[in-house]
Amino acid sequence: MTAPLTPPPPPNERPSYRGGPVPPPVGAHALGAAPGAPYDPYGEQDGPGMLTEVRQAAATVVAVALSGALLGVLWWKLAPSVPLVGGLVDDSWVVYLKDSEGEQAIGVDGTFTLLALAFGALSAVVVFLLRRRGGVPLVVALGVGGLLGSLLAWRLGVWLGPAQDVIAHAKEVGKGVTFPAPLKLGAKGALLAWPFGALVVHLGLTGLFGPRDPEADPWPAPRYPSAPYGDGPAQTEHH
Questions:
Q1: I need a labelling partner for 48 at 20 to 30 A (CA). Which of 14, 75, 216, 239 fits?
Q2: 3-state class of 178 per DSSP?
Q3: Tens-of-pLDDT digits for all 239 residues of the chain?
Q4: C-alpha–C-alpha distance, residues 169 and 180, integer Å
Q5: Do the domain assignments include residue 239?
């Protein structure tokens, strides 16, 4: 004959669980979750939506490109002057370099390149501080904006510099008078200095100070709660 089952524990010793939705686990899936945030069963963190990222990228392109105007002004002010001299040869005006061995032309390209690299580093720092969690669209926008800014700086510097018609300029100043050559970018590869510097600096900042993904919990908690307090094993009593 079997004895009755073990009686349940007193009411004050019963667990508080009465069924209902399964509570979220506290392990690898709960790392980085803010208090009161909805539980994500796949451990994904909410980020900016695609539409928001596109808007931020468009604003970045415009802001970075417009800052190229400042680069153009600085290039015009800081670039060395290439001296030219005009004269008459067989009743025709010719223009030639006053110092054929001078390195002013190289200095013009070097000044633009150094300034563009500095602007690229500065724009990368500003974008990283403002949009630290930016994704691929923001990085692409930084490169595109840097290229457009370089083009704007180049054309603005040429426009602000000396006159492009050197023959007319030589006639204006007179025979044998030295005058500055038009501002010219000989190495067009310098236009890539801004986007290159911006991408390298932004990549370095992201690698050093960017947000980190939460590490996986080596001992994750079980995804389901333990079974409610149940009856103990049946005991038998022999007579």
A1: 216
A2: strand
A3: 555 555 555 555 444 545 555 555 554 444 444 454 444 443 434 445 788 888 989 999 999 999 999 999 999 999 999 888 887 777 788 887 887 777 888 999 999 999 999 999 999 999 999 887 767 888 999 999 999 999 999 999 999 999 888 888 888 888 878 888 899 998 999 999 999 999 999 999 988 887 666 666 566 555 655 555 555 454 545 54
A4: 9
A5: no
| Residue 123 exposed, middle or buried by CB count within 10 Å (0-12, 13-18, 19+) | buried
CA distance 25 to 221: 6
If one counts the domains in the chain, the total is 1
DSSP-H helix ranges across the chain: 50-66, 68-78, 104-130, 136-160, 166-173, 193-209
| Distance in angstroms (rounded) separating the CA atoms of residues 112 and 114 | 6
Please tell me the distance from the alpha carbon of residue 145 to that of residue 67, in angstroms, as a whole number.
Answer: 9
Q: Judge residue 28's burial from the number of C-beta atoms within 10 Å of its C-beta, 0-12 exposed, 13-18 middle, 19 or more buried.
A: middle
Cβ atoms 26, 223 nearer than 8 A: no
DSSP bridge partners of 228: none
Residue 2, H or E segment: none
Query: What is Dmax (Cα atoms) for the chain?
Result: 140
Task: Work out the end-to-end distance of the chain between its first and last CA atoms, rounded to an integer number of angstroms.
Answer: 7
Which residues form the domain of 74? 50-82+100-164+179-207
Which tokens go with 234?
A: 């049946």
Let me know if residue 55 belongs to a domain: yes
**Residue 15 domain-assigned?**
no
